[in-house]
Amino acid sequence: MLSIKESAIDFLITNKNKIINEWNEQILSHEDPFSDKTSLHFEHFIELLIQSFMHKDAHTDKMIKQLAHIVAAERIQAKTPFVDFINHVSSGRAILIHHLLLQNMSSAENQSILKLVNSCIDQFLYDSISYYTELNSELNMGQCETLSQTHKERLTLLGKMTSSFVHEFRNPLTSIMGFIQLLQAETPDIKYLDIISTELQQLNSRITQFLDISKKETNEAEKHIFNIGHLIYDVIEFLYPSILEVNAKVTTNLADNIFISGSKEEFRQVLLNIILNALDVLSFENSNPIINISTTEEISKQLTMNISNNGQKIQEDIIRDIFKPFITTKERGTGLGLFVCKEIIEKNQGSLSCSSNDELTTFTIRIPCV
């Protein structure tokens, strides 16, 4: 008389094709590029299951692991939901157990057979999921590295283009600034010369900073200790014409005498970028445009600055990448403004983040104060 394991082996050998066909009817998909291999893999697994009934050891475990890795690699290439694969394995388990339970076995014999079947399938699933996760992580990392390299190449190209542009632009700009200074000295009563001079200086400063960031130069800007509240008021005053054009209401709630250490001009650029972006958003169909700027100093000597506007909500997928280079919602934007801001804040041991809902969009700067 055959032993219980011998009976199970004899049954699987005799009914292998029947079990495979029943499984194929449940799971086979013509959209799967590896559908022609699916039946072969299931057949291979049944053969390994038969070997396990004979003698389950390290060799059969290794063979199951190899099959699991092959299948996991195919699932990565197929780009199908991995949950479908798990469901297919569950279907195969159910079919195998169903047919094995139809044999005339005692309860104890059933438990012994089912324990071995489940052990082999669980091992196959574990090895498949582990290897699939490993391959998927490597793939995602590779994609990130590719994107990072693409951004680096674009930044390098942009740096070269900007360098050429700056040299061509600065000559006439310097001449204009010189003639404005002459006019200020010779005819100081002419209106708006101060404003024109300030605008030209800011333009020159922005071009220089754009060049420095795009070329990723290592030269550190000279640091000073300055009052952040005073700088905020200076920037608001400078942007007054733009604020007036949008008819925005700018409110401030600033803590007294908060000082930070860094390049004042770089922090001016951060404030200009964020507030100008807000004004740009508020210029579109907003009957009551508002910008609010607040600062607080925490006990841990940390400055928290919130710059909020009631413009249109920024979608989650955009917020996720909003500080990456070349990400922009503007038709003619470079996508470098917020990237530059984040680099400036982070090199001063701070952080810059963004949140947005239907009421407010807020940029939050956290940075050590002195």
Automatic annotation (TrEMBL):
<dbReference type="InterPro" id="IPR003594">
    <property type="entry name" value="HATPase_dom"/>
</dbReference>
<keyword id="KW-0597">Phosphoprotein</keyword>
<dbReference type="Pfam" id="PF00512">
    <property type="entry name" value="HisKA"/>
</dbReference>
<dbReference type="GO" id="GO:0016301">
    <property type="term" value="F:kinase activity"/>
</dbReference>
<protein>
    <recommendedName>
        <fullName>histidine kinase</fullName>
        <ecNumber>2.7.13.3</ecNumber>
    </recommendedName>
</protein>
<keyword id="KW-0808">Transferase</keyword>
<dbReference type="InterPro" id="IPR003661">
    <property type="entry name" value="HisK_dim/P_dom"/>
</dbReference>
<dbReference type="InterPro" id="IPR036097">
    <property type="entry name" value="HisK_dim/P_sf"/>
</dbReference>
<dbReference type="InterPro" id="IPR005467">
    <property type="entry name" value="His_kinase_dom"/>
</dbReference>
<keyword id="KW-0547">Nucleotide-binding</keyword>
<keyword id="KW-0067">ATP-binding</keyword>
<keyword id="KW-0418">Kinase</keyword>
<dbReference type="InterPro" id="IPR004358">
    <property type="entry name" value="Sig_transdc_His_kin-like_C"/>
</dbReference>
<keyword id="KW-0902">Two-component regulatory system</keyword>
<dbReference type="InterPro" id="IPR018984">
    <property type="entry name" value="Histidine_kinase_N"/>
</dbReference>
<feature type="domain" description="Histidine kinase">
    <location>
        <begin position="164"/>
        <end position="370"/>
    </location>
</feature>
<dbReference type="Pfam" id="PF09385">
    <property type="entry name" value="HisK_N"/>
</dbReference>
<dbReference type="InterPro" id="IPR036890">
    <property type="entry name" value="HATPase_C_sf"/>
</dbReference>
<dbReference type="Pfam" id="PF02518">
    <property type="entry name" value="HATPase_c"/>
</dbReference>
